[in-house]
TrEMBL record:
Region Disordered, annotated ranges: 1-38
Keywords, alphabetical: Kinase, Transferase
Name of this chain's protein: PPK2 family polyphosphate kinase
Xref: Pfam families: PPK2
Alphabetical list of SUPFAM superfamilies matching this protein: P-loop containing nucleoside triphosphate hydrolases
Gene3D superfamilies per UniProt: P-loop containing nucleotide triphosphate hydrolases
Residue intervals of the Polyphosphate kinase-2-related domain: 40-250
Length: 276
């Protein structure tokens, strides 16, 4: 990326200070693809170099955290932005309602088990943040238990960063009206009925409570080590491009490089000569 190309990460990062979600427009399209110079660093190539680096002892890896209300498009982002990467080198994890076993442990227990190995891009479809979102909104544990989790999350993420992980946290910001349209569309299409969860309508009724809970997350857990990005999610194409671009910018900055081979290339070539 040239020095003067504005970065999407700068445009979408949550600024420090008090956060109110009303300040973020779900229909915005900052730095659309057309505004930017195309360049050669394809996501796939960057990822391959990150992987190559790890085969020679490199510790670096990336963790993409996806959060958002139902229909915000976590699935679409995984299909398009992450799909662009191809399956090799990507480790996908969806976090659902915790099992009995998971509930018997600290909330980060199941998360730690799914952290990406060096060279990999880990994708969290929902994450440890549910433990201060759905859990807070539904009083699944008392406030005395969820309140300390913001600090616990920041300490946890700092630990990951210190160990070579670059964390990209994305809140897919869909509007109330567009969520309604998308839920109605699911009802109109028999091939989408499987996606329709009656519980999503219950969550929608708690929209304002979720806005408050998301604002707290963005305010308290957008750190220098692991910032949050708010991606406008009312336009699907923009949303998918933006997440891919955030990943790409992140990898460009990491600048992974193919390791120098330790093989004796001439000797190998010699041994591969046809038989005399
Ligand atoms: P989905 O991602 O739409 O398939 O739904 C997964 C469901 O699991 C959502 O309703 C989440 O709110 C719920 N979920 C994920 N993590 C937790 C958690 N830590 N505690 C309670 N519910 C959770
Ligand atoms: Mg859902």
């Amino acid at each position: 990326m040239s020095e003067d190309t504005p970065s999407l990460r700068q445009a979408l990062a949550v600024p420090p200070g008090p956060v109110s979600l009303s300040g973020f427009d779900p229909g915005a399209k900052p730095l659309e693809p057309g505004d930017r110079h195309a360049h050669d660093d394809r996501l796939q190539d960057l990822q391959e170099r990150l992987w190559a680096e790890s085969t020679q002892g490199g510790r670096r890896r990336v963790l993409l955290v996806l959060q958002g209300m139902d229909t915000a498009g976590k699935g679409g982002v995984v299909k398009h932005a992450v799909g662009e990467l191809g399956p090799i080198g990507v480790q996908y994890s969806a976090f659902k309602k915790p099992t009995e076993e998971e509930l018997a442990h600290d909330f980060l227990w199941r998360i730690r088990k799914r952290l990406p190995e060096p060279g990999m891009i880990g994708v969290f479809d929902r994450s440890h943040y549910e433990d201060v979102l759905v859990v807070r909104v539904h009083d699944l544990v008392p406030q005395s238990e969820w309140e300390p989790r913001y600090d616990a999350i920041n300490a946890f993420e700092q630990e990951l960063v210190d160990d070579g992980t670059t964390i990209v946290k994305v809140f897919l910001n869909v509007s109330y009206d567009v969520q309604r349209e998308r839920l109605l569309r699911r009802l109109r299409r028999p091939d989408k009925h499987w996606k329709f969860n009656p519980g999503d309508v219950d969550e929608r009724a708690l929209w304002d409570e979720y806005r408050v809970a998301y604002s707290a997350v963005l305010e308290r857990c957008s750190t220098a080590a692991a910032p949050w990005y708010v991606v406008p999610a009312d336009h699907k194409k923009y949303r998918n491009w933006a997440v891919a671009e955030l990943l790409r910018e992140t990898l460009v900055e990491l600048a992974p490089a193919y390791p120098q081979p330790s093989i004796d290339i001439d000797a190998m070539r010699e041994r591969l000569q046809p038989p005399h």
